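Hi support team,

I'm filing this because I wasn't sure whether my run with adenosine-5'-triphosphate finished correctly. The job status page said complete, but I'd like someone to confirm that the output block is well-formed before I use it downstream. Pasting the exact inputs I used:
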Amino acid sequence: MAAQTCVDVRNEWDIVSARQLGRDLSKELGFSSVDQARITTAISELARNIYLYAGKGKVCIEPVKDVNRSGLQIIASDTGPGIQDIRKVMQDGFTTSGGLGAGLPGVKRLMDEFSINSSVDIGTEILITKWLR
Ligand SMILES: Nc1ncnc2c1ncn2[C@@H]1O[C@H](COP(=O)(O)OP(=O)(O)OP(=O)(O)O)[C@@H](O)[C@H]1O
Ligand SMILES: [Mg+2]
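And here is everything the job wrote out:
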């Protein structure tokens, strides 16, 4: 399996490509179909946020290994406007676009690890991991 594969996100078709890549890699790693769905949903939400709020960015997906487990790690990054108040965007229902505001809190619930690094005017990087069980 490729060490790391990235998809540039610039339009709505790229969101579908990122999602498809996540589906392929999670299947290949042996995730259950339920976990495959969790992973692809999380990737879609992050890719959609990149498209909507940053205009462009990328989603990189790679297999990861810990001492006693393996999994899939996804890094969604952009050099867009950044997020001013991370605590706020992690609350259910917070949105600046009239969306449901369910994206980021939903992604956190679907995955095992979730971290955001964001600076205003510099950009946003969100790292998520799902472990095989
Ligand atoms: N990559 C990003 N760059 C800048 N701001 C972002 C980024 N991703 C999310 N945000 C901000 O965080 C808010 C919350 O994102 P979230 O995905 O949870 O909800 P939403 O996109 O508004 O609605 P939904 O995803 O439910 O359609 C967004 O409204 C936006 O202001
Ligand atoms: Mg969203």
